[in-house]
TrEMBL record:
Belongs to the HPS/KGPDC family. HPS subfamily. GO terms for molecular function: hexulose-6-phosphate synthase activity. InterPro entries: 3-hexulose-6-phosphate_synth (IPR017553), Aldolase_TIM (IPR013785), HPS/KGPDC (IPR041710), OMPdeCOase_dom (IPR001754), RibuloseP-bd_barrel (IPR011060). It comes from Paenibacillus sepulcri. Transmembrane segments: none annotated. Pathway: One-carbon metabolism; formaldehyde assimilation via RuMP pathway; D-fructose 6-phosphate from D-ribulose 5-phosphate and formaldehyde: step 1/2. The gene is hxlA. The keyword Plastid does not apply. This is 3-hexulose-6-phosphate synthase. SUPFAM superfamilies: Ribulose-phoshate binding barrel.
Length: 210
């Protein structure tokens, strides 16, 4: 089970400072969509150069032009790139084919997918690397989480790794771990904690215990 730190509300220097504090406890750094909007793919490049031993995920939430946009993220140093599950199959295929050329990975974000099990099955057959259930900021504000959706995709996904994101905190992590995703994505649960090092190390410890 891997731990990904999502960085959403920071600039590049702040992102570097945060990662430096918790790099021992995480596997993947996510350059979040708001950071890409503010800083561009320079943020991916800067973090990959500063932390070459960590995997970097570019949260582009691609909806079209899958091959081209994955190519640009990979050029910037991304190891994993996100594509939306609601995108057309042709977009998913383009993304998967482009990533495979350099052994990079595609994570499909299931945000706003209605028929979650059926779409997860299709995406699995299209050869994506990760399928991630996700309650975004706006649905988190309405009290939603994706714990049940994780159980649903785990029933049908045979090849891809499963992942979960959206509002996960130390207090809810045990419930998430019990559902056994391959990847747990945490943003505010670490970056919004009083002591980010403590939060990250305790999360790592819980994940290790399984
Ligand atoms: O993808 C995200 C969101 O849509 C904003 O871009 C976040 O990275 C994801 O939700 C994880 O962050 P937290 O919800 O703060 O854990």
């Amino acid at each position: 089970m891997e731990l990904q730190l999502a960085l959403d509300l920071v600039n590049i220097p702040e992102a570097k400072a945060l990662v430096k504090e918790v790099e021992a406890y995480i596997d993947i750094v996510e350059i979040g969509t708001p950071v890409v909007i503010n800083e561009g793919l320079h943020a991916v490049k800067a973090i990959k150069e500063a932390f070459p031993n960590l995997k970097v995920l570019a949260d582009l939430k691609i909806m079209d032009a899958g091959g081209y946009e994955v190519m640009k993220a990979v050029e910037a140093g991304a190891d994993i790139v996100t594509v939306l599950g609601v995108a057309e199959d042709s977009t998913i295929r383009g993304a998967v084919e482009e990533a495979a050329k350099t052994n990079r990975k595609i994570l499909v974000d299931m945000i706003s997918v209605k028929n979650i099990e059926e779409r997860a099955k299709e995406l699995d057959a299209l050869g994506v690397d990760y399928i991630c259930v996700h309650s975004g900021y706006d649905t988190q504000a309405e009290g939603k989480n994706s714990f049940e959706e994780l159980t649903a995709i785990k029933r049908v996904v045979k090849n891809a790794k499963t992942a979960i994101a959206g509002g996960i905190k130390l207090s809810t992590l045990p419930e998430v771990i019990a559902a056994k995703p391959d990847l747990i994505i945490v943003g505010g649960g670490i970056t919004g904690h009083d002591n980010i090092q403590t939060a990250a190390s305790q999360m790592r410890q819980l994940i290790k215990q399984g």
